[in-house]
Design a protein that fits this description.
The chain has 584 residues and is an alpha/beta fold. It is built from 18 helices and 20 strands. The protein has three domains: 90 residues, Ubiquitin-like (UB roll) (Roll); 109 residues, Alpha-Beta Plaits (2-Layer Sandwich); 361 residues, Rossmann fold (3-Layer(aba) Sandwich). The strands form six sheets. It has a five-stranded mixed β-sheet with strand order 2-1-5-3-4, sandwiched between helices. The chain has a four-stranded parallel β-sheet with strand order 12-11-14-15, sandwiched between helices. The protein has a four-stranded mixed β-sheet with strand order 13-18-17-16, sandwiched between helices.
Length: 584
């Protein structure tokens, strides 16, 4: 351990730690902008400047290692002036349209200006030429707001192993973007949105679809049905000031009803349906020599990744559509028939934690007949904006419940879809119960839980031993994929989620990743959101997807059985290799 002082406070730090790491581990705050734990610490923004006793210059806390006897001053006159000067220089090349920016009041640059008392434009002059790119279905890039912190670049490289973003040109003309400054559409982008939630400003945002949803709600010829993904309830409260990890299901439902949706359902119904189809597909492959291991298909970002990076492994991917797409297909067939509504007059809205869902609904392979299954996708953040636009007082809302008819029931197995390992655990519950032919005495599969990038376990299915694996983020999944490619994989079933931690940390969720409280980065937000979902799972009377009575009724009256001809038509899809070099 190394002894040092920060702001005259005697502390100890581990050898090799930086000044920033030592400060945070001792509850001392040093402002940052370009720094992102385990991902980016270049010191390029110069916001974390500190003064070290007898030092000739100010030093960046995120890159400077601690030394024995070091004395650091975070808020000395010299450090504050240096820090303020750095932010003023950043602001000189910023477009400053804060009032109309999606990140208004949740922008790290804006917060720094407030903290440092920056009120005037100290440095005036030319600005770097702007690139505004919104051709993709999911992500909008505005370089006039970019601070060149490289957090998005390093996130794409280190979290997803892709590296489609980079700094281009030199000097004053430097901008961030895909190679040749092309659209996200023209590169092998997952559309996962991890770059968006790790951007400190509004340079990267989700493409908004609120206006289309409002138009549909106000169209008297449309029946507007909204569904909410399980992870949304564990995050949306944060947009209204609730503590991280607050389970806001009841308030969310009440708010959506006040927004004017005709029906408010839970995607959890379709998550149970997904388990029925995916579980049946797994058993078919195991029992009849199908392609193994089988990969889950719930994450559209992961599906885009494998189509670009490992197209030779596409036969391993389950053909089951993701839950919200299944919901849309059932809503415009089974539900429409029962309600006597023409499918063309039904407008299905998905509230999702995921930006990649925006492109997923446009895949022609996912369309059923002449109608698209889902008409619009709003992220958790967009949903909160819609609620605020409708003047709903969140704090005054009383809990309400999802509409109960036909598509309203769900089990605990569906709830945990929002956390990494949740799909696997839900599938194991249903498959094990089906294979053993009796109710499970223990439904919890603890090995599936936790934040580890890769988890594995051996599972006993009525005497048959199977190995399963779980991965979230493509950098974690890649070694598993390489094993499958080499023919050395021991696994039978592999769950892969595009975002670290799963949907609770999706690109469309509330942005808290870079905030610090009591020295803890992000407040441990992923773990808190995960706990909220597992707590709801425990509270559910039914926790195995196949026990959902409305799912049983759906098969009895409409689909027949999992994997039936009609189920294949409505609930399954296909994939195809994508050329990631087509711009060259």
């Amino acid at each position: 351990m190394i002894n040092l002082k920060i702001n005259n406070k005697e502390i100890q730090a581990e050898e090799g730690q930086t000044i920033l790491e030592a400060a945070r581990s001792n509850g001392i705050r040093i402002p940052t902008l370009c720094y992102l734990k385990d991902i980016n610490k270049s010191g390029s923004c110069r916001v974390c400047l500190v003064e070290v006793k007898n030092g000739r210059t100010l030093l960046s806390a995120c890159t400077t290692p601690v030394t024995e006897g070091m004395e650091v001053f975070v808020n000395s006159e010299r450090a504050l002036k240096g820090r303020k000067n750095s932010v003023e220089l950043l602001m000189s090349n910023h477009n400053k349209n804060c009032l109309s920016c999606k990140r208004n009041q949740n922008c790290e640059l804006q917060s720094l200006c407030e903290e440092l008392g920056i009120r005037d434009n100290k440095f005036e002059g030319a600005k770097t030429e702007r690139t505004l790119e919104d051709a993709s279905y999911g992500i909008v890039r505005d370089t006039s707001k970019c601070v060149l912190c490289a957090r998005c670049i390093e996130t794409c490289k280190k979290v997803q192993g892709l590296g489609i973003l980079g700094l281009q040109n030199r000097g004053f003309d430097t901008i961030m973007g895909p190679a040749y400054n092309v659209s996200f559409n023209d590169v092998n982008c997952m559309q996962c949105g991890q770059c968006v939630i790790n951007c400190p400003v509004g340079a990267l945002t989700e493409k908004e679809d609120i206006d289309r949803v409002i138009d549909a709600i106000n169209d008297p010829t449309k029946t507007v049905v909204v569904q909410t993904a399980p992870a949304v309830r564990a995050s949306i409260g944060e947009e209204f000031g609730d503590p991280i990890g607050t389970l806001a299901t009841g308030k969310m439902v009440a708010a959506l009803k006040q927004c004017g949706f005709d029906k408010v359902y839970d995607t959890n119904f379709a998550a149970d349906l997904t388990i029925m189809e995916e579980g049946n597909e797994l058993l078919e492959r195991v029992q009849h020599g199908g392609t193994l291991p089988m990969f889950t298909s719930c994450s559209p970002g992961w599906v885009r990744y494998i189509e670009y990076e490992y197209p030779e492994l596409l036969p391993h991917v389950s053909t089951a559509k993701s839950p919200h797409m299944m919901f849309g297909a059932i809503c415009k067939t089974y539900w429409a028939k029962n309600k006597g509504i023409d499918p063309k007059d039904i407008f299905v809205v998905s509230i999702m934690p995921c930006i990649a869902k925006k492109s997923e609904i446009h895949r022609p392979e996912n369309h059923t007949g002449e109608y698209v299954d889902v008409d619009a996708v709003l992220t958790t953040r967009e949903c909160a904006r819609l609620i605020k636009m409708n003047g709903v007082e969140w704090s005054e809302l009383e809990d309400d419940t999802f509409d109960p008819d036909l598509l309203g029931d769900y089990t605990g197995g569906a709830v945990i879809f929002g956390a990494t390992g949740g799909v696997m655990e839900a599938a194991l519950r249903a498959v094990k119960q089906q294979v053993e032919g009796k109710k499970l005495e223990k439904v919890d599969f603890e090995a599936c839980r936790g934040m580890a990038g890769v988890k594995e376990a051996e599972v006993d299915l009525n005497g048959t031993k199977l190995w399963i694996a779980i991965a979230s983020s493509m950098s974690a999944a890649k070694p598993l994929l390489e094993e499958v490619k080499a023919g050395t994989s021991k696994y039978t079933f592999i769950e892969i989620m595009g975002c670290p931690g799963g949907c609770i940390n999706g690109g469309g969720q509330s942005i808290v990743a870079s905030k610090v409280k009591n020295g803890k980065l992000g407040y441990g937000y992923k773990e808190l959101r995960m706990k909220a979902l597992y707590d709801e799972d425990l509270s559910c009377e039914l926790r195995v997807s196949s026990d959902n009575p409305q799912i049983q009724e759906l098969y009895d009256k409409f689909l027949g059985k999992p994997g039936s001809e009609l189920a294949e038509e409505l609930l399954h899809t296909s994939y195809s290799a994508k050329d990631k070099f087509h711009i060259l």
